[in-house]
């Protein structure tokens, strides 16, 4: 696995608490959860060339489909 880039990240303490609880709910570290959230956002925004964003439900089902 390629080494990861380290950099300092300053967060509002209340936001960090939210991320900390969220990470615990998902059984991840805070750093791992932040990386997960950023990766998912980049994929949805079409910024990751090898991944395509998941189509929204209304785009997958034609009109009148159950």
Automatic annotation (TrEMBL):
Gene3D superfamilies: Met repressor-like (1.10.1220.10)
Source taxon at top rank: Bacteria
InterPro entries listed in its UniProt record: Arc_rbn_hlx_hlx (IPR013321), Ribbon_hlx_hlx (IPR010985)
Gene Ontology BP annotations: regulation of DNA-templated transcription
Protein name: Arc-like DNA binding domain-containing protein
């Amino acid at each position: 696995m390629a080494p990861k880039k380290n950099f300092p990240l300053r967060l509002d303490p209340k936001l960090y608490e939210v991320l900390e609880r969220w990470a615990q709910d998902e059984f991840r570290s805070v750093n791992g959860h932040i990386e997960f959230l950023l990766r998912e956002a980049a994929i949805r925004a079409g910024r990751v060339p090898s991944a395509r964003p998941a189509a929204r439900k209304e785009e997958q089902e034609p009109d009148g489909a159950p």
